[in-house]
Prior knowledge:
The chain is mainly α. Among the domains are: 17-117, Alpha Horseshoe (Serine Threonine Protein Phosphatase 5, Tetratricopeptide repeat); 313-366, no CATH class. Helices cover 79% and strands 0% of the residues. α3 packs antiparallel against α4 (69-79) and α18 runs antiparallel to α19 (332-344). The protein is elongated, with a radius of gyration of 27 Å. The chain starts with a helix and ends with a helix.
Amino acid sequence: MFAPLLLALTLAVVAPAQLDDVLAETDRLIATGQHEQAVARLRSERTTHPDALELEANLGLALLAGGRVDEARAMADQLGGGAGDSYRGQLLLGHLAFRARQADAALPHYRRAAELHAEPVDALVGQVNVFRALGKHGKAVKRALTLTEISPATGRRLHAEVLVDQGDKLMAMGPELLTTAAARYQAALKLQPSDRVMLSRLLDAMVTAARVDDAERIAASALVAEEDRAELLYWRGRSREAAREFDAARVHYQASIALRPEHGETLLHLARLAVADRRLDEARTWLDGASQQMDTSPRMLLLEAEVHVGLADLPAAEACLTQALKLSPSHSAALYQYARVLLLSGRREEGLAAMTHFRDVQKGIMAAQVVEGR
Length: 374
């Protein structure tokens, strides 16, 4: 008479453990990009666990990770109010809101998810990314540090990415903040010493700020493999250019482009040197090559504008600078050159107004430098 009761008690104890195993297994499948396998596994368990909110929510997460957004959204709708106490349900709602560019709406879901799990790695990752999207880098760093205590590798990576975000923002504001930007990139590289993107950001800030010796030392120690030769030559060229040794810079750039003809940045700097030497046809050739290898940027447009000014084509120069300012409205060099082109075109009032705006932006940059330095 006790056998059925014992069996029922055994099933009651085993079932939750089995569900946890399924969730752990499918979490791993999702994390490793095996989305369809995760979907199939979760669907196969629905009859065994018909009322398991976490399983249903994980199915939604697997669908979303596999790009099946409408199906994932339908799963979220089915969860309804039940998602309130589901860790994965809150993650799903947060991910869907964030994907829809509704960062403010995503944040409460990620915060609630963090309350529902002892080690809420994905919830903290979500919070970091929300604060990055909102430009709240201080809060993003705090969440990344909390994440580092739970998942050191993930926390350090995101912390470094936030520092890069800060550096990029400072670089875009103009040369006045280069030193501060370089400090952010250097801190990021310490967290992710093998990350080549962060290395490039740091070296770019250093050579632009004329910290040539530091840039050459870091490049020489980091770029030692044979396959890094073209990159090392490029940074040697950048360092010589920053030191105003233009002939040496050109030699390094040309050696680099011989090894890596498709490198847009090298082509762009060869164009810069050609513009400085008033070799405008050559500059245009290098710029055409660069434009085929990289997205349009304010730097590229500034060089194109200089070529047009040298050829006395002021309307074309103005068009380039207008486009540059659409991409980066506070770009100080673009603002200055825009005002200059207006004055050269004989549009004195517009030119003076543009120059006043340039000076106002410069004051704002100086104020930002004080804030960032605190």
